[in-house]
Amino acid sequence: MSRQNIYRAAACVTAFSVAERFFGFVYRIVLSRTLGAEGMGLYQTALSVFAVLATAAASGLPLTVSRLITKYRAKNNPRAQQSVVAAALVCALAFSLPVFALLYFGHGWFDFLFSDPRCMSVLLVLLPALTFNAVYSVIRGVLWGNKQFVPYCVIDLIEELCMIGAGVLLVMNMTDVFDGARRVAAAVAASYLVSFTLAAVWFFAKGGRLRSPRRQLRPLLASALPLTGMRTSNALVNSAVSLLLPARLIAAGLTPQEAMGRIGVAMGMSMPVLAIPSTLIGSLALVMVPELAEHYFRGRHDRLKQDIEKAIRVTVLIVCLLTPPLFVLGEDAGVLLFSDPESGRIIRNSCFLLLPAGLCMISTGVLNSLGCEKQTCLYYLLGAAVTLACVWALPRFCGVYALTAGSAAGSAVTMALNLRLIGKKSKEKVCFARHACLAALTMLPAVLFGSLLRNLLASFLPAVAAAILCGAVMLAAEALFLFALDLAQPRWLKVLVRRS
């Protein structure tokens, strides 16, 4: 692809991704208001188990299919490309169909997974989507490999819009929160059927063909299994938290309904808001990976050091800019977005975990670009063990805040190990501690200023206008403060738009 086409494709993918995330966030607000905390808890817990199954079924296939198709297209071998697609479909169906049959017809053997038996009923509604998603994952890899980004983006957006439309229509006639959770799950399954159908029609309409998969099964599995293992471990940890936390809340004295309600508030309402900074940090990590890798393997250690420092410092600035508004306006966000004050209190009280979480994310991206995937996997698992230990031990002392405490502790462990390894891998000393500490200290006056401003604006403006204006003024004031202290430099932003 020419440079111009690359930028055009990147702009297209970004635009569709932003639209999809926006619609999804609005849909989550609608669900939280209709299902309530208990219904969101049932849906979120079942969805976390489904996510593990979907990840294990096909998460490593799209990238692997894309790579192999690119490889065989360069060799002008269309038969091998068709064989790759067939091999990937065999792998996807070989896992998804037996798992579907086992869980759907033998679900009584797996009721122990959930502390609330209603979650299994919600999962059964989701299960047919497992095969649809697995097959679509293969075709998604074909679209990537053939650089057909627009069809991929359009199908994903249609899938999201179908889920939202079906979900809104179905929950309008729900009889109770349990029925509502099942209806939302049915909307998810229907949207996966739509994306599967559209992708299959596109594949065959554009001349897609299948050939014997025998010769491509081994190379496909050799590449896909490590990727799938990494992503499945992450999904397993998230699912384990979703299953363990309600059980520990019940053991701490809550009823199953109360436990599901707390889970719905924390994971279905508060956590998506707290994940906003990770979207920006994830984009930064994605942009940095190829540049860092090139510096490392070409021995440009001075430039490697500089870019690592930029990545960490920009991450710290993103977190320090967004944490004070989340603290000051967290309760307002919970009420305005979800009509739930408790979700706002969780946002406010948990926003300071964003610093270790952000540094954990960016340092993992840095190390992966330096070829340290095995070490980052080990460090992630160590952090996950700490998270699970906190989720097991802390609910009796701090209730649902065991989730955020565990996330903060696990991220801190992984972050510390990652940063230690970065220091070893870089030939020149990477300096960021002073900058990070000073930037973190600026959050204190920002919180004080924001609290005073919020109280002032709330005395004569409507709640929504006061919150928006307060947030905008806080961000502007924090940015000026950081520039005045020489903690932020405009030239660092070039790393996001540099054209090499």
Would you summarize the structure shown here?
Helices cover 83% and strands 0% of the residues. The chain has helices at residues 3-58, 61-74, 78-105, 118-126, 129-145, 149-171, 177-205, 217-251, 256-274, 276-297, 301-338, 341-350, 354-369, 373-393, 395-398, 401-425, 433-441, 443-458, 463-484, 494-497.
Structure, described:
This protein has two domains: 3-228, no CATH class; 275-497, no CATH class. The longest helix has 56 residues, at 3-58. It is built from 20 helices and no strands. It has 500 residues and is an all-alpha fold. Mean pLDDT is 82; it is low at 1-7 and 492-500. The chain starts with a helix and ends with a helix. The chain has helices at residues 3-58, 61-74, 78-105, 118-126, 129-145, 149-171, 177-205, 217-251, 256-274, 276-297, 301-338, 341-350, 354-369, 373-393, 395-398, 401-425, 433-441, 443-458, 463-484, 494-497.
DSSP, total strands: 0
Share of residues in strands: under 5%
Number of helices: 20
The succession of helices and strands, N to C, reads HHHHHHHHHHHHHHHHHHHH
Rg over alpha carbons? 24 Å
Number of separate domains = 2
User: Unreliable runs, pLDDT <50, ≥5 residues?
Assistant: 1-7, 492-500
Mean pLDDT level: 82
Q: Globular, elongated, flat, extended or rod-shaped: what is the shape?
A: globular
Structural class: mainly alpha
**Alpha carbon gap, first and last residue:** 15 Å
The major pleated sheet works out as:
none
* Helix content estimate: over 70%
